[in-house]
Write a sequence for this structure.
């Protein structure tokens, strides 16, 4: 049986995403073959395509951090799971494909009846948002938080989860995302026309209890200035390494942001004023504490089933149009999550 997948053979722009047709992968011992219903498109995918994300695989590779699909075939030694079971996974790369083989231990059951596009939004974006709020910053109801990139994939997830947690929320966004941020319960701060440090102190007096910074670089230090004494900046991304969805600096070095993270984290501890900077990485927390990932994803899927959260889907594209999805994300102004849907999956029409 043949299938379609997307490959990157050279690091670079969206035009480097090629559609190939080839034999379906066969599940090895302990693996299941999953027919992908929906794969997420996110900035970490764009950073891998550009070759600047620390997790970038060797060329050629298939991008795709997160997927939801149906178990279609069991490899030798697999038990306790049936063909037809809907599952979610975070393979980090490889999800832009019609079929993917994954270790059974990597897949998490998805309750029946959920929309695959909404469910896949939980795997990278909502887990990132949830774990940063509840495992890194340990927020409490009534606290004030500043969310950077609040109209984006992770940002809108954080607003929905922050509202459930009873937080007072402020969110930086461009003017295109302001109404979405307000509707999700945040006070928008236009990062292109306002100084967010001044604005957060004007609005809160003392500053924020926690700031979530996926922008990176020198922005981290400004985020620290937005804190009240005793507050925490959680750093988790390098949106600033891209401009218009392409490399901002021309330096294609996958670890270039790490030393600056280290510097700010150390500075946060050494300098007086009790303002901490702590890092978050979904993949590292999953490697170190896999039970957290499974537990948090299961809990978020329950919230989705109970309709307590409703991921914003900015657009659904057929798998073969991955390039167009990357172009759109690179242009900016996307509110929520972009999703690739596979031919033959019913999620293109809105259901899994
Ligand atoms: N560490 C982890 O485990 C982890 C996991 C997931 C994601 N991430 C990181 O999280 C970040 C966000 O990912 P995403 O998929 O949510 O991206 P996204 O959907 O593209 O959202 C990014 C948002 O940031 C906004 N933005 C750009 N520059 C900004 C600035 N200087 N100040 C405030 N907002 C700004 C954009 O607004 P406009 O387009 O309107 O300008 C956009 O809404 C990325 O750096 C990604 O690598 C990290």
């Amino acid at each position: 049986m043949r299938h379609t997948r997307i490959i990157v053979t050279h690091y670079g722009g969206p035009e480097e995403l090629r559609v190939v047709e080839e034999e379906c992968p066969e599940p090895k011992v302990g693996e299941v073959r999953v027919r992908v219903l929906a794969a997420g498109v996110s900035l970490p995918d764009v950073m891998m395509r550009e070759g600047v994300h620390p997790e970038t695989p060797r060329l050629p590779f298939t991008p795709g951090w997160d997927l939801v699909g149906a178990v279609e075939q069991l490899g030798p030694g697999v038990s306790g799971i049936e063909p037809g079971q809907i599952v979610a996974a975070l393979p980090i790369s490889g999800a832009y494909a019609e079929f993917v083989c994954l270790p059974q231990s990597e897949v998490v059951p998805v309750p029946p009846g959920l929309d695959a596009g909404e469910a896949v939004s939980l795997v990278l974006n909502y887990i990132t948002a949830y774990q940063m709020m509840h495992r890194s910053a340990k927020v409490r109801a009534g606290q004030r938080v500043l969310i950077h990139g609040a109209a984006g994939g992770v940002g809108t997830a954080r607003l929905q989860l922050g509202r459930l947690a009873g937080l007072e929320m402020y969110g930086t966004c461009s003017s295109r995302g302001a109404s979405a941020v307000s509707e999700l319960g945040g006070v928008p701060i236009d990062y292109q026309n306002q100084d967010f440090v001044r604005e957060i102190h004007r609005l809160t007096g003392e500053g924020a209890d926690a700031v979530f910074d996926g922008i990176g670089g020198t922005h981290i230090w400004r985020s620290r200035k937005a804190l009240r004494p005793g507050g925490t900046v959680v750093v988790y991304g390098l949106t600033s390494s891209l401009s218009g969805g392409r490399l901002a600096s021309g330096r294609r070095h996958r670890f270039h942001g790490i030393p600056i993270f280290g510097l700010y984290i150390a500075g946060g501890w050494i300098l007086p004023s009790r303002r901490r900077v702590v890092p978050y990485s979904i993949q590292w927390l999953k490697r170190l504490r896999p039970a957290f990932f499974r537990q948090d994803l299961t809990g978020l899927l329950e919230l989705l089933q109970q309709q307590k959260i409703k991921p914003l889907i900015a657009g659904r594209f057929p798998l073969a149009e991955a390039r167009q999805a990357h172009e759109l994300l690179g242009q900016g102004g996307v509110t929520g999550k972009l999703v690739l849907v596979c031919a033959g999956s019913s999620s293109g029409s809105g259901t899994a």
Observations:
- Residues 2-121+288-349 form a domain with the Quinone Oxidoreductase; Chain A, domain 1 fold (CATH 3.90.180.10).
- The first strand starts at residue 2 and ends at 8.
- The two ends are 23 Å apart (CA to CA).
